[in-house]
Amino acid sequence: MKPLALLLALASLAWPLRAYAQTPAADPTVEVDFNNPELSPPYWTLTIHPDGSAHFRSQRGAPLPDARQSDTPDIDRDLHLSAPFAARVFEAARSHKLFNLECESKLKVAFQGWKKLSYTGPEGHGSCTFNYAKDKEIQAVSDSLLGVSATIVEGARLLKLEQHDRLGLYNEMEMFTSGVADGRFEQMSAIREILQQLAADEALMERVRRRARGLLAQADAENQK
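Above: the chain sequence. Below: its structure as tokens.
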């Protein structure tokens, strides 16, 4: 083979390797999978990226005695969490071996649902599953993620009531804002578009729209924390 032809052949072989080496690392993600057949939804997954972009998917199970919970629709949607919240979740993963450790507490605690926290990124990957975590920070992060899922599910209920039961929407908003105040619901950023829709709907009672505006203000404040 002539020298020039040999060089061209070697260059063609090297190009795919060079292109592969220059491919940026995959975007890190933290994912939480939840499973509790006694709740609605009984199964859900929340995937979070460092910038706060996220995706939530839930699946309804068998009907429950609580008609309100059984009325929860399936959810499969993109959303956005506040940057400080996302940073807290990723810091917890990196300070706890990317969740590659034993999480379950040995304490006798009532069943609250299985939570699986998973991290995937350029540093590696790991996961742990628990009902109640022995590490206080992991348990605190888990509680916050459950609060986020509750907010997302509640947002779906609010949309359904807006379409089918506008009088019932008032009572639901009262319950929701009370739950936000006592910490049961977290991250209004996750349902910003839904709150904006409620705040702009002139067919709704002004008290409902006022509540929605207040929660929107809280969503704005979340990014400042």
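The chain has one domain: 25-222.
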